[in-house]
């Protein structure tokens, strides 16, 4: 049975890419009966009906999937954060990083509008960049009309499925607009990617870019901890993971427990205090979450 990957979903049709061809498929009714739905990014088996038509029969196991945008099997997310207008926000960045870690999606931090920095801001940002790089995150900095942007971003997209994320106004659309025209795409595709035009149907599509796949949606603007339990939270802080095996209690939550290696690392400066404060805030959010029935 032929196999392929869903590259686009629109009006009940799934466009499955297989060896250079795009097959327009419907999903079997059995998926609907089981409450399942194929997603862009899914690897699927399908049966052929006619030259370019088919039916999806099997959805292969997913590495991960997001609800907004509805997409599966993502390798990495480029987190677009502006340095100014809006100002750089570590708690929002940490929120994004934690949720991506929980989905096993590799984050790349991309800082925009660096040309708006004054001297004081430059020192502050240098310190933040050093903090996040020491944790193990990759940080890119770009500015308006950056001539080296393509050279910075292209190698990161190769052989990966990538989504963009970040709050509104940080330059996600500009970033997409910079990446997509290098493909010589039709203007309509770019306009659609940027959500322009009142009558544009919003859909997620994976487009081949720089030897990889990029979701042509400006992505998601916020993350909640709906699916996370409090015991899982610290595993999404790589700087905590390094220390927590040394905690006295195996099930240590790093809140009120004695002889906690994470809290000791915060006191010694090995873990940044603002990261720990964010952890406590997220922890409270999860504890206070109303149960869903």
Outline the structure in words.
Residues 72-221 form the EngC GTPase domain. It is found in: Cytoplasm. This is Small ribosomal subunit biogenesis GTPase RsgA. Monomer. Associates with 30S ribosomal subunit, binds 16S rRNA. The chain has helices at residues 29-33, 90-102, 119-135, 149-157, 172-179, 187-193, 230-233, 238-244, 261-268, 273-287; strands at residues 3-10, 13-18, 21-27, 43-48, 53-59, 65-66, 71-72, 76-82, 106-112, 138-141, 161-165, 206-209, 212-215. The protein is α/β, with parallel strands linked by helices. It has three domains: 3-60, OB fold (Dihydrolipoamide Acetyltransferase, E2P); 71-215, Rossmann fold; 230-287, Probable gtpase engc, domain 3 (Ribonucleotide Reductase Protein R1, domain 1, Orthogonal Bundle), CATH 1.10.40. The protein has a six-stranded mixed beta sheet with strand order 10-9-8-11-13-12, sandwiched between helices. The longest helix is centred in the middle third of the chain and has 17 residues, at 119-135. Residues 183-201 have low confidence and may be disordered.
- Shape by Cα distribution: globular
Please estimate the helix content: 25-40%
pLDDT averaged residue by residue: 86
CATH superfamily of the largest domain: P-loop containing nucleotide triphosphate hydrolases
How are the strands of the biggest sheet laid out side by side? 10-9-8-11-13-12
- Based on CA atoms alone, the radius of gyration comes out at 21 Å
Oligomer: single chain
CATH structural architecture of the largest domain: 3-Layer(aba) Sandwich
Structural class: alpha/beta
CATH level 1 class label of the largest domain: Alpha Beta
Family: Belongs to the TRAFAC class YlqF/YawG GTPase family. RsgA subfamily.
Domain CP-type G: 63-223
Binding site for Zn(2+): 247, 252, 254, 260
Subunit structure: Monomer. Associates with 30S ribosomal subunit, binds 16S rRNA.
């Amino acid at each position: 049975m032929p196999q392929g990957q869903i590259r686009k979903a629109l009006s009940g049709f799934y466009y499955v890419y297989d060896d250079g061809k795009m097959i327009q498929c419907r999903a079997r009714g059995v998926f609907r009966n089981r409450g399942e739905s194929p997603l862009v990014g899914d690897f699927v088996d399908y049966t052929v009906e006619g030259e370019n038509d088919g039916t999806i029969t099997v959805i292969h196991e997913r590495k991960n999937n997001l609800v907004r945008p509805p997409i599966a099997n993502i390798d990495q997310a480029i987190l677009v954060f502006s340095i100014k207008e809006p100002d750089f926000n570590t708690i929002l960045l940490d929120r994004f990083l934690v949720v991506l870690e929980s989905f096993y999606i590799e984050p790349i931090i991309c800082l925009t509008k660096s040309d708006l920095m004054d001297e004081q801001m430059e020192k502050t940002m240098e310190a933040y960049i050093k903090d996040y790089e020491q944790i193990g995150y990759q940080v890119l900095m770009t500015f308006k009309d950056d001539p080296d942007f393509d050279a910075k971003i292209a190698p990161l997209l190769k052989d990966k499925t990538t989504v963009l994320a970040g709050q509104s106004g940080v330059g996600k659309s500009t970033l997409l607009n910079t990446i997509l025209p290098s493909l010589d795409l039709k203007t309509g595709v770019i306009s659609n990617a940027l959500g322009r035009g009142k009558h544009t149907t919003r859909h997620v599509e994976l487009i081949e870019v720089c030897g990889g796949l990029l979701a042509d949606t400006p992505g998601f603007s916020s993350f909640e901890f709906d699916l996370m339990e409090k015991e899982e939270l610290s595993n999404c802080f790589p700087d905590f993971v390094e220390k927590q095996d040394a905690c006295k209690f195996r099930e240590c939550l790093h809140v009120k427990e004695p002889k906690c290696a994470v809290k000791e690392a915060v006191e010694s400066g090995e873990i940044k205090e603002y990261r720990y404060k964010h952890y406590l805030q997220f922890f409270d959010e999860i504890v206070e979450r109303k149960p869903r029935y």
